[in-house]
């Protein structure tokens, strides 16, 4: 059975489950204070990078600078980036990071709190970042929703589809593609065509307040194990969840070199999403991010991840 079919659906039978599943910016940011954004400035940041206010640009540069000093983020040292809004009313943006060869090298998810502060709610590395236009293009080609185009911008502009980035939280992130009275949902990371409906998407009740780093400019600690394929053992199907109650519990388990898989049932148990957990990163404000491998590395706040699923050894 393929990974795609395993992920697409999850049905529980007692103890057994059957699945079918930005404008450019390379300037080094100065060390600075926390960033507060007015609603007008936040709206300006929602378009392309040329329109972003200086403090949005400075904070993104600050985060990129801090991360570029970490192992695995070397290609971010001369990074350029573009920002895009995350759907109507979501008060957030995805920042796609491009290396010196103009290839996708990672992403940041930036939210804003009710008091106007920018929050780094997720980030990751690899050539298939969250909300990658290249990944979306390939999926729409595979589904025969569009004809070949010469570049990413032209397929969005001329493809005839209305495209939105829906980021309800780190585990519920999808492209919503409306075309010829049909609506398609595509996983924002893997590019999988998901068996979702608008009712299932609108029914997600885990619309978390922005959770992540705020007044920080430095990574305090990183720990990482080798990546592995969570489908090799299917421990998230046959084993009981681990008794992980705190981030300290998870950190200690990882340091015992355990292969730990995180799994959650998403969109009203329509999709089972397992991810290999291979480490963590701790910022100087104490906010821990779990490192998960999903076709590239994703750094997700511990609290947000743990509230929506379980860990399995």
How is this structure best described in words?
The chain has 313 residues and is of the alpha+beta class. It is built from nine helices and 16 strands. Strands 3, 4, 5, 6, 11, 12, 13, 14, 15 and 16 form a ten-stranded antiparallel sheet that branches. It has a four-stranded antiparallel sheet with strand order 7-8-9-10, with no helix packed on it. Strand 12 (260-266) and strand 13 form a beta hairpin. It starts with a helix and ends with a strand. The model is unreliable at 8-50 (pLDDT under 50).
Pick out its properties.
single chain; 313 residues; 16 strands; 33% strand
Strand residue percentage:
25-35%
Number of distinct helices: 9
Q: What does the average pLDDT come to? A: 81
| Rg (C-alpha, Å) | 19 Å
Compressed to H and E, one letter per element, the order equals HEEHHEEEEHHEEEEHEHHEEEEHE
Shape: globular
Query: What proportion of the residues is helical, as a percent range?
Result: 10-25%
SSE topology sketch:
Layout (H helix, E strand, L loop, with lengths): L2 H6 L1 E4 L2 E4 L19 H6 L9 H15 L11 E6 L6 E7 L5 E9 L5 E8 L7 H10 L9 H7 L3 E8 L2 E8 L2 E6 L5 E2 L3 H5 L16 E6 L10 H4 L8 H9 L4 E7 L4 E13 L4 E6 L3 E5 H5 L3 E3 L1
Antiparallel strand pairs: 1-2, 3-4, 4-5, 5-6, 6-15, 7-8, 8-9, 9-10, 11-13, 12-13, 12-16, 13-14, 14-15
Task: Provide a quick synopsis of the model.
With 313 residues, the chain is α+β, with helices and mostly antiparallel strands.
């Amino acid at each position: 059975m393929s990974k795609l079919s395993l992920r697409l659906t999850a049905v529980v039978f007692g103890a057994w489950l059957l699945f079918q599943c930005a404008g450019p910016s390379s300037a080094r940011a100065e060390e600075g204070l926390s960033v507060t954004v007015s609603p007008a400035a936040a709206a300006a940041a929602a378009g392309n990078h040329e329109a972003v206010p200086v403090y949005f640009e400075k904070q993104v540069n600050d985060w990129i600078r801090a991360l570029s000093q970490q192992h695995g983020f070397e290609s971010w040292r001369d990074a350029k980036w573009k920002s895009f809004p995350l759907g109507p009313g979501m008060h957030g943006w995805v920042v796609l990071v491009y290396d010196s060869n103009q290839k996708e090298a990672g992403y940041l998810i930036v939210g804003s709190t009710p008091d106007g502060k920018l929050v780094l709610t997720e980030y990751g590395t690899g050539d298939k970042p969250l909300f990658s236009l290249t990944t979306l293009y390939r999926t729409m080609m595979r589904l025969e929703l569009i004809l070949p185009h010469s570049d990413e911008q032209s397929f969005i502009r001329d493809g005839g589809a209305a495209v939105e980035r829906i980021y309800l939280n780190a585990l519920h992130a999808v492209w919503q593609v409306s075309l010829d009275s049909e609506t398609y949902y595509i996983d924002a990371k893997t590019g999988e065509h998901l068996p979702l409906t608008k009712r299932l998407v609108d029914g997600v009740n885990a619309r978390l307040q922005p959770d992540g780093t705020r007044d920080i400019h430095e990574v305090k600690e990183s720990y990482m194990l080798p990546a592995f394929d969570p489908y090799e053992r299917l421990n998230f199907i046959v084993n009981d969840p681990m008794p992980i109650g705190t981030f300290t519990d998870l950190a200690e388990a990882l340091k015992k070199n355990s292969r730990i898989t995180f799994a959650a049932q998403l969109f009203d148990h329509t999709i089972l999403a397992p991810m290999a957990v291979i480490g963590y990163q701790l910022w100087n404000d104490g906010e821990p991010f779990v490192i998960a491998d999903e076709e590239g590395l994703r750094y997700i706040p511990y609290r947000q991840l743990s509230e929506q699923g379980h860990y399995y050894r």
